[in-house]
Design a protein that fits this description.
The chain is mainly alpha-helical. Helices cover about 50% and strands about 10% of the residues. A two-stranded parallel sheet has the order 1-2. The longest helix has 19 residues.
Length: about 130
Amino acid sequence: SHSWSDHPEHMWPLLREWARSWAETHGRHPLVWFDLACLEQTNMLLDMANLPCFLAGCNELVLLVGPTFFRRLWTVIEIFMFMEMGGERVTMCCTADFDLAEAIANFDARHCETAHEGDADTLLAYI
């Protein structure tokens, strides 16, 4: 999971390093699911209906965390859904400019941003 508002050039090295470390530990390359390839980015209700199906196949949720990650409601929903479904392994890979303590201190799901106006109420209803 990552925020589309963070710079992709900062996310790619995080993903590469996680995959390298994972392959070193497990002796093979990881299988990775990208929501961009599977979710209908313009239909949030359809995305929410399908998200549990996709997450059910995940053994680990990898968070590519930059400064905007915890300000985006969709990324928070992905974490919440994964944990609610019994997911246990969450790996957080953070950019150098991310401050976890600050993000936790300032977090309030009601103030998170969404891609489309009106989506917040629907997403917040899930949590």
